[in-house]
Amino acid sequence: MITVRDLDVHYGDLQVLWDVSLDVRDDDSVVVIVGPNGAGKTTLLKTLSGVLTPTDGEIRLFDTPTSTLSASDIVRRGFVHVPEKRNLFGDLSVYENLRMGSYTQRDDFEATRQEVVEMFPVLEERRDQKASTLSGGEQQMLAIGRGLMAKPKVLALDEPSGALAPQLAERVFQKIDTISDDVTVILVEQHVDQALGLADRAYLLENGRIATEGTGRELLESEHVRESYLSG
Ligand SMILES: Nc1ncnc2c1ncn2[C@@H]1O[C@H](COP(=O)(O)OP(=O)(O)OP(=O)(O)O)[C@@H](O)[C@H]1O
Ligand SMILES: [Mg+2]
Q1: Where are the beta strands (DSSP E) in the chain?
Q2: CATH of the domain at 231
Q3: Which domain holds residue 191?
Q4: Residues 102 and 74 in one domain
Q5: pLDDT tens for residues 137-163?
Q6: 24 and 120 belong to one structural domain
Q7: Alpha carbon nearest to ligand 1 atom 1, residue
Q8: Does residue 168 lie in a domain region?
Q9: For ligand 1, atom 27, which residue shows the shortest CA distance?
Q10: Could you give the C-alpha distances from 31 to 123, 179, 183, 186, in angstroms and in order?
Q11: Cα torsion at 73, 76, 78, 79 (round to 10°)?
Q12: How many Å apart are CA 187 and CA 31, to the nearest integer?
């Protein structure tokens, strides 16, 4: 689905990603990217979604080099990125935010919305409430729901459990597990333990480079991951 080869990304003169290669395969349900603050995880997702342009290397999305695609082409082809900061339209209602998410899939709006509110019933209960007045957990559900409205083949989630209480984070992980039955999920997380538990493939990004890769289980069992990222 996605192949990334030897990717370099800079912000101006500052290089943030070096030689990053990774694969998301058709039969992967969840591909996890973990790593410490500032490692370049968000930068990697922004580059995959066409928001940032790499200085070297190649990304192929369903066999097409993304250098030939605009950010909205990338969404249309089925890669949807739910950003770290959620980017909800705070003054718009839940319903209207879902509508914005379906801009590439207008015709299927109501049928898709029904599927999304079935997964996240709170988005029906709060249908007319302004997004800015939702709780943090509800906003996260809305951000994911809005991503699903574009009917992605690959859904990239940047720290969906970020800033949520442990119980809520656990619920988000359960939802991701369900979503991944139908949609391939790329999950960037700081909750290393839970994220790796869901992962078919996983990558550890450190200082802008892939430090370790393998199955979720391999990373969970790796001494380096255990010592640096897991407590006990
Ligand atoms: N717009 C920008 N301009 C310059 N430097 C940036 C910009 N955005 C990010 N960086 C730098 O790039 C590096 C990687 O940042 P990035 O946000 O990708 O890390 P991250 O792994 O997502 O971290 P976190 O876990 O804190 O979200 C950091 O050193 C950051 O300061
Ligand atoms: Mg980040």
Answers
A1: 2-11, 14-24, 30-34, 56-61, 64-65, 79-82, 154-158, 184-189, 201-206, 209-214
A2: 3.40.50.300
A3: 1-78+152-163+173-232
A4: no
A5: 899 999 999 999 999 999 999 999 987
A6: no
A7: 11
A8: no
A9: 37
A10: 26, 13, 11, 5
A11: 40
A12: 6
